Amino acid sequence: MAQIKIFGYADKISVKPGDTIQFHVSADGASTAEAHLVRLIHGDEHPHGPGFIEEEIDCVANGTWRVEKQFTQVGSFLEVADPDRKLALDGSITLCAFIWPTWPDVGHRQCLLGRWDNDKNHGYGLGINPSGRLEFWVGSGNEVDYLQAELPLQKQAWYFVAATFDARSGRATLYQEGVVNRYNSLLSKVAPVEYRSHVSEVFRFRQSNLPETPFLVAGSRDWHALRGHFVSQLYCGKIDRCGVFDRLLGREELDAIRSGGQPPSYGMVAYWDTTKGYTDRGIGDVVVDIGPHRLDANGYNRPVRAQTGYNWNGRNDCFRLAPHEYGGIEFHADAMIDSNWKVTKTLELPETLRSGAYAMRVRGGDGKGLAEEYIVFFVRPRVPSGRIALLFSTATYIAYANERFATDGHIVQPMAGQPPTISEVDIEIYENPEFGGGCYDSHADGAGICYSSYHRPMVNMRPKYRISAFDLPWNFPADLSILAWLEHKGYDYDVLTDEDVHLEGVAAMAPYACILNSTHPEYHSERMLDAHEDYIAGGGRFICMGANSFCCNVAFRDDEPWIMECRKTGGHWIAWAARPGEYYLATTGQMGGIWTGFQRWGQKLVGNTFAGEGFAHSQPYRRMPDSYDPALAWITEGIEGEIIGDFGLGNGGAAGIEIDCYKLGFGTPPNTKIIASSGGHPDNYIAHDEEGAHAHQGFSGTHNYILRADMVYFEAPNHGAVFATGSIAFGSALPIDGFENNVSQLLSNVVNAFVKPGPLPGSSNRPMQNTERLERVGL
């Protein structure tokens, strides 16, 4: 009997009662599944905690669903809008393009551009054959004629390539010339590499075109009995300006294009100028045709734009400065930002649904292992009602979606201090590229994944999931321990998501007197960062519950908030780095990387930020002298002794995994008080150095004073305040002993004080400052 596997996703991650949400489910080995709406309360199944807790919710969608195997189109490519079939050329033809292949010898054919049906062998195409050589082909349906270059293409080298076909004589010619300069390619001119190849041959027949075949860039049409039409022969690499002519271009004309000249208008059917469309705020997916028919092309699975082109000369590092040097569009055969599955069930959410974290639980067969799926989403109130909000870090969830640390992370074992605990979910992610990776993973050709999305299964958002590399609850499953604490303590709270804050700004936060965020609030757009700053400065009271806080700059489009762009720009603690000249986000035009590069350190916002990470053992906090100040005694009221949190579900302590510290030189407000600090972290904790020190011994836990979690508190204007834990592990300490412990007591003290109107206990009672431009917050 076939193993049953259930996977799914929703079209929205944040909704309100009465909204409509769509669920997309794919099933192997089953035609029906049992679905039930649940409210999620606690995820971590660690035996020292309360275990997994969910509440079943009555709704009309509960019951048996019809399910089926659904297929995903992976790979990025361009499809040309050609309703009048201008590109269905059956006579003489010229194809040309600038290309920068990243995996020419992958072992299968890659189509650069053409109107080719790979199933029926009709049409024409210019591409790379399985041995890594440039190739031109035409098909009549029964047969295909091929012409290949003499020399294989070099990896990461810019070429100008062209194919001409004389329908009268049948002669086909391939033209391959290197356009390598001092900056644009992997190798320099000192490497004895030959790039040029010119070959010619007489074909037996001309191309025959089918009416329904689309013209594609970086792929070709194919068909399979189970899934129907799809795109195969996907290309890995960049393509710069490319075109199609309905005549033979001569050698001099091709040389002129290669040298940067304008393509001839005579005979031009289409010419896609990949440098057109840039604005100060980035560029979209439409590639402009400057030819007579305006046959614009549209990107699928988000081809990467704002990439350097064949003529990049190393002087300018951003497309805003020299858009004509940024014609490179990068394609990946395993890119995936939207599964595009059929809708399995549509649900109008009950108006009575309370705010919280929810999932549609879908089970096939015995409902165990891969036969159980939780499609997670968050419900905001239609009208904010509580004084407290729990802000879920959905941008971080997207960044880590389907991460492959356990299978592909070569440095993970020394980071964790233990071998990974591989689960069947990890194996499924590894074996199924159609789920796509996250922003910590790389494409198969080695380039970092800079786009991630929640329009696909995110198996590591299942509430019971433990990250196998570290054997911990990670991100959303860990964040449920904070929600469960709010439930246990009986607080009236609402939930928010990063998406809400990005789309609505401070208006999403302003109704609440106190906001707690999540264990790993790492990724933020500029709008999100601005909203946090304005909320706190306007009198909001903010509890930063985690670490690695407010570090990375990301971008979203307003019309597609489910897709996030992230470009990593160097440093010893990142998974990959964008190439030189490619640090700027195509979505917004802003530089990517970490907020440190913009002088917006996390310390400026919450008093501490990233100090380092390690995954072997967590440590307790020790109270610092500031905690004994009578004005701050309310924070530690009811706590005996110096030690706080020498326990926890996150590696045995409340301070660990990733930790943040106080640094006045990086913007920690000067009135910040250190309530407690950790120390004694093991040597698999490595410091993150923001100060640009030379590499030297002493960056590990037992040698570096920076490697500590600082629990800090400060007052902000208008009776605002910030309390920051400085530790990812803090939230996982809350459930110990039935939520009755000194970490829980301390957090209760802070929340209880933060929700009360008026000055805080021991407040310096500074006068209101002029913040008329800010939203009033819910005090």
UniProtKB/TrEMBL annotation:
<feature type="domain" description="N,N-dimethylformamidase beta subunit-like C-terminal">
    <location>
        <begin position="308"/>
        <end position="735"/>
    </location>
</feature>
<dbReference type="InterPro" id="IPR013320">
    <property type="entry name" value="ConA-like_dom_sf"/>
</dbReference>
<feature type="region of interest" description="Disordered">
    <location>
        <begin position="758"/>
        <end position="779"/>
    </location>
</feature>
<dbReference type="Pfam" id="PF13385">
    <property type="entry name" value="Laminin_G_3"/>
</dbReference>
<protein>
    <submittedName>
        <fullName>LamG domain-containing protein</fullName>
    </submittedName>
</protein>
<dbReference type="Pfam" id="PF20254">
    <property type="entry name" value="DMFA2_C"/>
</dbReference>
<dbReference type="InterPro" id="IPR046540">
    <property type="entry name" value="DMFA2_C"/>
</dbReference>
<feature type="compositionally biased region" description="Polar residues">
    <location>
        <begin position="762"/>
        <end position="771"/>
    </location>
</feature>
